[in-house]
Write a structure and sequence with these properties.
Layout (H helix, E strand, L loop, with lengths): L3 E5 L5 H9 L2 E3 L8 E3 L5 H6 L8 E4 L17 E3 L6 E5 L6 E16 L6 E2 L1 H8 L12 E4 L1 H11 L7 E3 L6 H7 L1 E6 L7 E6 L17 E9 L6 H9 L11 E6 L2 E2 L3 H10 L9 H5 L3 E6 L26 H6 L4 E3 L7 H5 L5 H10 L3 E3 L1 E2 L2 H5 L2 E5 L2 E9 L14 E2 L6 H12 L3 E7 L10 H13 L3 E4 L8 E4 L2 E4 L4 E3 L5 E2 L5 E2 L4 E10 L2 E13 L3 E4 L2 H14 L6
Parallel strand pairs: 1-20, 4-5, 4-6, 8-12, 9-10, 9-11, 14-16, 15-16, 15-27, 16-17, 17-18, 21-23, 23-24, 24-26
Antiparallel strand pairs: 2-3, 6-13, 7-11, 7-12, 7-13, 14-30, 19-22, 20-21, 25-26, 28-29, 30-31, 31-32
Length: 571
């Protein structure tokens, strides 16, 4: 099976490497905390004048170095010693001895908690108070607080010894499962995060943000390789050590952020508001969430039709089409990936006798938007879309379980990919996984208005997780549903609406709910070929068309209900 593919070239790392090797070094006297600029490398004349060593150069590795900061196996020509006065010294910048700083490494840590944690951000002063054993509501329920030795050493210097017995300093950090079981938090190296953990911002900074700057973040540690004052290895000796030191564990050129959303249907009252207030009106409250990502996914359930009638906000008909001008909304939010599993994707074929899928696909293709889950015919609809960004290979595949028949693609008609027995999709996910892709599977499943998943849904979504998908989403839900983690996959049984006019829903017994206004927008972070983190952004639909970020209280109530529906205890 062929694949629709987009390759996005990563930014060159040359500038980062150049910066690392031209930074001036720092020297520090024994009674100072900061180092003074000095020369990183000796000049050619100095190198020539330095006599060659008759014995191997010695290297001292300070305690608490993060795993992965250097490849020790490549340093067989060096003698590792326990004496800080060795020829070369590697450790925290603040502890560096007097000498030339040859290179530095910036290590970013993240404050992580079990996924169903309601706290989004804490101040460093809150952590300090917890460290000192002071009563503090924001951290009061934490049974244990783990942190690596390097971070613990810095805080011990700043705050003294930890008074709170819940603080545990060790480089043997617990697994994500252990943190869930203990109701514990941990400070973890950025690259070791897992999607079943929630990253808590510190002083308003999150290392998951695209605009993150390590220099202003409280959980950034700098390490330095120092040529000590009385040593004299020449450049040829020093260079092999510099070559195997990792510049940072958070390299932007290895990161990809992906935003995924629920139901979009630019019809009825939503379309009417767009005609009244402008095509961009629906996204004005959340446009930053959608554009501040490398890739943005939209599940557009309704195809575009050139002769689509003017929208009727009061229509009770469930046959839809969208004005082609509305494609400007997708351009405005930076949509990259269009999901076509929706059960209204070819209503026009049923109502007007016109297959509008080819016209809609042409609109996407002209704007460089890749599509999946539907297509010109059955083969196209079943073909995954692949995107490579910053070295992360993502593959998107989807299907429509619920129909109706005219929404499904055939050998000679456009539409969505039918799910069938799901085996074809599971097999394709396994193939993609073997080829190094991170598969992302989505469903247009059977709709209901409950926040918990049905047993068949749990089974069918689980098949994709077991096959190797890293994300499995339900794109059908107008009412947000619970979540799960299974076989290293994040499963969301339904994100709710994005751009659709459901301000409420009346059940068959006459009761009403406004929870159709509640919306989940997922923000996934991939790093170095791994799904590192999943964030839940929460929105409330306003004026039949326009989501806005939830208030703090709205968000808390919403997440508590979702976590309960997931079988999780909110923390």
């Amino acid at each position: 099976m062929t694949m629709k593919t987009i390759t996005q070239r990563p930014y060159t790392i040359f500038s980062l490497l150049l910066l690392a090797f031209i930074l001036a070094a720092c020297t520090a006297g024994p009674d100072t905390q900061t180092a003074q600029p000095t020369q990183i490398h000796p000049t050619l004349e100095e190198s020539a004048a330095t006599p060659a060593l008759t014995e191997p150069a010695t290297l001292y590795l300070a305690e608490g170095l993060p795993e992965g900061i250097l490849n020790i196996d490549s340093l067989s020509a060096f003698s590792l010693v326990n004496t800080p006065s060795a020829d070369l010294w590697l450790g925290l910048v603040n502890d560096a001895p007097t000498g030339n700083v040859l290179t530095q490494s910036t290590w970013v840590y993240a404050l992580a908690a079990p996924f169903p944690t309601l706290t989004d951000s804490v101040d460093l002063s809150d952590i300090e108070a917890f460290w000192r054993g002071e009563a503090l509501q924001v951290l009061s329920g934490i049974q244990a607080f783990y942190l690596p030795e390097a971070v613990g050493k810095v805080w011990q210097t700043q705050w003294g010894a930890a008074v709170n017995p819940a603080v545990i300093i060790s480089d043997e950090l617990p697994t994500a499962d252990a943190l869930w079981e203990e109701n514990a938090w941990a400070v973890l190296p950025f690259e070791t995060l897992e999607s079943s953990l929630k990253v808590i911002a510190v002083d308003g900074f999150s290392p998951l943000a695209n605009d993150f700057e390590a220099a202003g973040y409280p959980l950034t540690l700098d390490f330095a390789l120092v040529q000590t004052e009385d040593s004299s290895p020449d450049v040829a000796v020093v260079q092999p050590v510099m070559d195997v030191i990792t510049t940072t564990n958070r390299d932007p050129d290895k990161m990809t952020t992906l935003v995924m959303t629920g139901v979009t249907a630019l019809v009825r009252a939503t379309a009417y508001r767009m005609e009244e207030y402008g095509v961009l009106y629906p996204a004005e409250g959340i446009v930053d969430w959608l554009t501040n990502a490398d890739l943005t996914h939209i599940s557009n359930e309704v195809s575009f039709y050139e002769d689509c009638p003017y929208p009727n906000p009061h229509s009770r008909l469930l046959f839809f089409c969208s004005n082609p001008n509305y494609i400007e909304l997708f351009e405005y939010i930076g949509a990259d990936i269009i999901e076509l599993t929706g059960n209204h994707n070819n209503d026009s074929a049923y109502v007007y006798g016109v297959d509008v899928v080819p016209f809609s696909l042409d609109l996407y293709n002209k704007r460089g938007m890749v599509y999946f889950g539907g297509g010109l015919d059955l083969t196209d609809a079943m073909t995954p879309a692949t995107i490579t960004h910053n070295g992360n290979k993502l593959a998107f595949i989807g299907c429509n379980a619920s129909g109706p028949d005219y929404a499904w693609a055939t050998d000679d008609h456009g539409g969505s990919a039918p799910c069938g027995d799901y085996e074809w999709m599971a097999a394709e996910i396994s193939r993609l996984k073997e080829e190094g892709y991170l598969p992302i599977a989505t469903f247009q499943y059977y709709e209901d208005y409950y926040n918990f998943p049905s047993e068949p849904m749990v089974h069918d979504f689980g098949l994709m997780a077991e096959a190797g998908a890293v994300i499995v989403n339900g794109s059908q839900a107008h009412f947000p549903k619970g979540m799960a983690f299974q076989s290293d996959a994040f499963i969301d049984y339904g994100l709710g609406n994005l751009f659709f006019d459901q301000m409420g829903y009346t059940f068959s017994n006459g009761t009403n709910t406004i929870k159709t206004r509640w919306e989940i927008i997922q923000r996934h972070t991939f790093y170095d070929g791994k799904l590192l983190s999943t964030e839940l952004l929460t929105a409330m639909l306003y004026d039949y068309a326009q989501p806005r970020p939830m208030t703090e209280m709205e968000r808390r109530v919403f997440l508590e209900e979702l976590f309960t529906a997931s079988g999780w205890f909110s923390q």
